[in-house]
Amino acid sequence: MIDAAIILACAVLMRLRGGAFTTLTRLNPGTDGARGGFSVAVAALFLSPALGVTLFLGLIVTGWGPFQGLGLPSAGAPERSWMRWLPERLGFAPGTIAHDVLGLAQSGVVFLAPTAALLAWLVSPLAGVTLLGAGPLWPVAYAIPRIVRLPTIPRFASGQAWGECFTGAILGTALILSMKGL
Q: In sequence order, what are the residues at sequence separation of 6 or more whose Cβ sits closer than 8 angstroms to the Cβ of residue 78?
């Protein structure tokens, strides 16, 4: 029961980090403020200050905004990001499913890498590999709202924004599995 509550909390926290906090409260902590708040809150859930540091580090070195549409056309020009380098070098055009799937998987791995290294050191190498293995699931998190029509929760989530909730749930699940040593 506690694990399910932590997974749900991680899902909600990831969505709050992704913009719902500002929408709900009308307070804008800025990108790094939202990243920091998310990292501190997840670290508190797991009683690990070091976890907060590595999650924040992962969030500042990556971002999956350019890929969240998972093949849907963007309203404006594609968001600039160093994370687009690999999909574009492989010949995938921005805004295509292949570009976005690869970009999301890559972003998930890069985001989780600092925390995976921490867990490999503190828990076991298998714990680090387990957490890192959750990164390639980021495209699945964004595919769910494309496949299943999910409800709109005003000022919290609708459409592709649900992908952030699912990435949070994946993160929470992977952290629990990693920290328990499977």
A: 66, 84, 94, 95
Is pLDDT at 182 greater than 60 in this prediction?
A: no
3-class DSSP assignment, residue 157: strand
Alpha helices in 62-147 (DSSP H): 85-89, 97-122, 125-132, 138-147
On whether the CB atoms of residues 135 and 112 are closer than 8 A, the answer is: yes
Answer for the pair 160, 69: CB distance below 8 angstroms, yes or no.
Answer: yes
Query: Tokens 């909730």, residue?
Result: 165
pTM: predicted TM-score of the whole model, two decimal places: 0.94
Domain assignment of residue 151, given as a range: 2-179
Specify the pLDDT at position 121. Answer: 96
Q: How many structural domains are present in the chain? A: 1
pLDDT (tens digit per residue) in 44-87: 999 999 999 999 999 999 989 889 888 887 766 567 788 989 99
Report how far residue 53's alpha carbon sits from residue 69's, in angstroms, rounded to the nearest whole number.
28
Per-residue 3-state assignment (H helix, E strand, C coil) for 57-70: HHHHHCCCHHHCCC
Amino acid, res. 66: P
CA distance 40 to 15: 15
Q: How many residues does the chain have?
A: 182
Rounded Cα distance, 60 and 76, in Å: 23
